[in-house]
Structures are given as C-alpha cells and as structure tokens.
Amino acid sequence: DATKDMGLPAPANEKYYSKPEVANILAEKENIDKAIVEIIQRNLVPIGIGKIALLALLQLRKEGKPISDDPWLKKRQRSFDSSNHKLERPKRKYTKRKAPMEEH
After folding, report:
1. Do the Cβ atoms of 28 and 2 come closer than 8 Å?
2. Cα(71)–Cα(88) distance, rounded to whole angstroms?
3. If pLDDT is split at 50, 70 and 90, which confidence band does 84 have?
C-alpha cells in the first residue's frame, strides 16, 4: 500500500482525507513536515491544498477549536465563483475633472 511509508492511514472516503482527518493524523506524527510532504505528494488532499492549509488545521486542533468537515476549497475557488454575478467597479464620485486653476 502506498500510504505505508509514514504510516499514513487510508482516507475514509477512499480518495482524500477530510479536514478533521488531516488534523488528527498530523497531531499524532513526530515529524510533521515529512508527514505533510507525503500527504501532498501522495495526493491524499486535493491538488492545490498546500502546507500552510494543513498546518492551519493542525493549529486549530491544538487549540481545541472545531474543524469543519466541509469540502476543501482550492485557492482559485472563491465564494462568488458559484454565482454568475460580475463584480462591478465602484462608480467614481467625480465624473469630470476640472482643469487646474492657473496661477497668475
């Protein structure tokens, strides 16, 4: 099994670890950096999820804060992507620019 090197368990959903899974696995590891590299290299989290995101989950667990089990969001995804609304530019307050007053 490809997940045996660091003693990584297989993901519960057979493809990717959930956020709580990652936090729990990392909390048990002595060499967190090595475990993170292996998780990313073995695509046990979606492509685009990096070391910082995994460390943030571990930090939440250490602080005893709840970790949501919602789907992973990649950097390119933003909450407004799902809607078809275009972001409008804010309107300028001043439409015409007056010529600077000439000094005499």
Report:
1. no
2. 28
3. very low
